[in-house]
Amino acid sequence: MNVETNRWLEDLNDRQREAVLAGDGPVLVVAGPGTGKTKTLTVRLAYLLAERRIAPEALLAVTFTTRAAREMRERLERLIGSQADRVVLGTFHGFCFQLLKTEGHRLDLPPDFGVADRRDQITIMQRALRRVGEPDTRTATQRKLHEVTAFRRRQANVEPPVDDTGMTEIAEAYQRQLRKCELLDFDELLFLGVRLLEGYADVRESLQQQYEHVLVDEFQDVDPVQRQLLRFLAGDRNRLWAVGDGDQAIYAFRGAESEHLLRFEQHFPNGRVITLEQSYRFTPQIAAVASQVIRRNASRRPVTLNTANASGVPVHVVSFPDEQAEAAWIVRQIEERVGGTSHYQQYRGKVTDTVSQREQSFRDVAVLCRLHALTKPLQEALRNSGIPHRVVGEARFFDKAIVKDVLAYLRVILNPHDDSSFAHVLNRPPRGIGGQTQAALEAEAERYGLSLYAALGRSAVLSPSQTRGAKSLVQLMDDVRKNKDEQSLSQFIAYVADVTGLRQWRIDQDPRHENDLLLLRSIAAKYDGVNTGKALEQFLEEASLAVEVDDYDASIDAVSLMTIHAAKGLEFPEVMLCGVEEGSLPRENGDLEEERRLFYVGLTRAKERVWLLHCRSRFLFGERRDRDPSRFLQEFDESLKETTIMPDRPRRSKPEPEQLSLLG
Amino acid sequence: MSFIADLHIHSRYSRAVSRDMVPESLYRWAQLKGITVVGTGDFTHPAWFTELQEKLEPAESGLYRLKPELAAPVDAGIPASCRAKVRFMLTTEISSIYKRHDRTRKVHNLIFAPSFSAVANMTDKLARIGNLHSDGRPILGLDSEELLRIMIERAPDALFVPAHAWTPHFSVFGANSGFDSLEECFGDLSPHIHVIETGLSSDPPMNWRLSQLDGITLISNSDAHSPSKLGREANVLSGDLSFDGIKAAFTSGDPALFEGTIEFFPEEGKYHYDGHRNCQVRLSPEEARAHDDACPECGKPVTRGVMHRVEILADQPAGHRAQRALPYRSLVPLVEVRGAGVNTKGVTEAYHQLLASLGNEFEILMNVPIAAIEENGGGLLALAIQRMREGNVTIAPGYDGEYGTVRLLSQEDRQADASQTSLF
Questions:
Q1: Contact A356/B176, CB-based, under 8 Å?
Q2: pTM of the predicted protein model
Q3: Lowest mean pLDDT: which of A455-469, A643-657, B303-317?
Q4: What angle (nearest 5°) sits at the alpha carbon of residue B224, between those of residues B223 and B228?
Q5: Helix axes A592-603, A284-294, angle to 10 degrees
Q6: Assuming Cys at both sites, which of A74, B84, B251, B346 could form a disulfide with B194, CB separation 3.0 to 4.6 Å?
Q7: Contact A56, A86 (CB under 8 A)
């Protein structure tokens, strides 16, 4: 073995090394939190490249989020340099997108197909519902979307059949509308990827030939469609190397099936299982609490976390009268951690700041909740306190108003027959074409089998002034399309926003739109230098596949506020888990084992300190209710916890009205 | 013509600030105090920025004035003896709380900007980094060096000044959360720092003891949270009355442009000495060292004051005079000169009467002949101001957030004067 490889291997513990050096597979690496999962996976890739002399193009590594993919590629680059760029490393959806771009013509997909985001899905489903004469309210539409997704999964034979009367019609109408806009939704990317591999042996075989090794991250989150995809890619050679942790499987609601992780040996009788149990992340106390809790789950692989880290403090359970008290306490704690955020606090004796060697700052604290709704009072308290914080995974940047507008314009420029996008821009800014006219226009287009764009030119439903407005938009789009190669993508975006009148219209509504536009341009700037037509395609792909975008600069010091789901894969010195109550963790009617895994994932995000917070009364979803502490708080030794009970608020008579200060 | 500038203040949109901090009051009180250029403070706050854009109009290059229709009714209430022009400079203070070199740092920095558009360029970026709405002095999780970089990129003509550079909790040299040098704080960008604000608890001679500050100009501002506190500290300038003129005076430290600063007696500042406020324990640096920096009452660590911190970082003996040393004068606010009843109705009335007869407060404190003060304000006041001008004061230094007290008059002085009834 060469020197480099030896150095990487020396850096690993015995089990990790075993996992890296394991044969061609199938191999399952069961990796508890903080046990070096990503590290092991990247060293495995590096080892295959450097020692086993596998070509980078012959390695396929798939994961679930762009964040994870990016991190993996960066790590790999540090190990082996620029070769890392040629390893095929990305998300399941990204992989299928690329596959369908090159081979989709076999399924009659248009070459310029785009990906429908949530907004597109809703408008398209609404149209489909109108077509089949069903109610198209927002709630109904969302429910139908959900049902169609499940229906298609069953059709793909991956879920047990149920009575699907009536579904076929809606599903087909939805599908037709999607295709008319030359769009695929997220699920379809995977379904069609699988269908392609299933139906076209030449494609399947050539991919199997190309990928000598298939590596999978977060194996517990793989759903049946993805599993099929993996099976086709790995082929009979089964050169599959998967890493995952069933205890961190928290995506059952999306159809993930962590059981295949349990049944690995049945699926692959010659498979090998290696378990990583030594965690480098947290204190022995946190390891003990997490292990004791998760042990209560029946369906799991036996994994017992251990750590050589220095002993820390017990986990701290705090009970509050209500969510306001909880939020106020969290703010106080954070202020205390950084030694106060203003002179005023110090003067009032609200915080102490005599420690001059403080090491804690905002970024070291994360507040996690089971449900996004639980973060609301906290967001308000943090906002009022002025403490820098970021709400992770809330408003996606690509969902902001002006960003959606610009993206829709760009899609129309790239593909005028994208009806969903065209409908979006038609009256933004207002061009005198209201909802009724638009509906009439859509009906007309449908009747003649035309796209909206084509229908506009010959419409009978528009008044003369509307026709002028519509025609000038069509003309404008045609002109803009011709001009696109004369400027860089970021300039082009500014140009589009200006000539369409979009920028001025949005800024008149709220000047903050300008910031969003600027940020969008700065994201696009990385494609400057690439031919604008090409850049446009790549940029729109990035926008539609992005699950999360770092709207904030990573160098900004801020408290993170997010759901447990969003926190997966992250770690923080201190974690405050709030709303640890019956009804929210575990959730009412939730699968108890899944809820326990969520608690486990929350706990194991912390390196040094965990606070488990619960309220005795909480206002949630429109009503105030008494709440019991979560049963999970009883599932570990008393000796591992410290409990503080905040007293009820003193009952006060009505507060006196504030004195009028006319003379003040 | 020399003029006085006080550039670090806060608007009513900042925490613990008087509701009265609005452009009209700043305009009024600047005249009463004798200040020509007053900072707006808080330019990052969206509502305050909008208010400023509505109420101010451009005056000399880079400076603004209150619109005439708003100024006129205010002028009507100002004694003729004090009326003078007032200019506004767009300024702000930003609280950066962040980790650098593995320690949590809390540093306040000032930015002085030459135009509304320069401000807009910066706030565009800052709004994406943090919450500018909740406080006129926003807390950003942004490294001071990065903040400076943003200013250089977005508003290259603006001026960046570390605020009250010595306060223990929130400053570049602060004992609890700062750095040992400007380089440590600002890294490669430290050559862009030409000016620091000394803060109430330090005066120029304390700063002269650090050779690393030899090329740095020391400026002073009030950090006022209510209008009557304007001008507690300030700068006396003699260059061009414009943004660039003031910036040039500050960055060059040229005595032909910058006559010097008006200071508090540093002992009066809240963090001059070491101490522990809860136990009312005040310690000189030597005493604190003798107690191992622990409170002799309760044993908790004391808050290390500015004096002690300066001694730690000083590499020049006390009394050393820096090359760039500018003259300075230590003053006590007029209402405190007599040392009693600062906020009583009587004192307030007497204050305004005195201004009406003698001119603005700085004139009275620094220039009006003692005889004239005696004639209009009584013998005790004249005696007190004379002593202040001579530096003949008795001081109990401030510590751990508690202001120090300065005494200009003794019990005997008061008794000797018992016959007189002047409120001052």
A1: yes
A2: 0.78
A3: A643-657
A4: 155
A5: 180
A6: B251
A7: yes
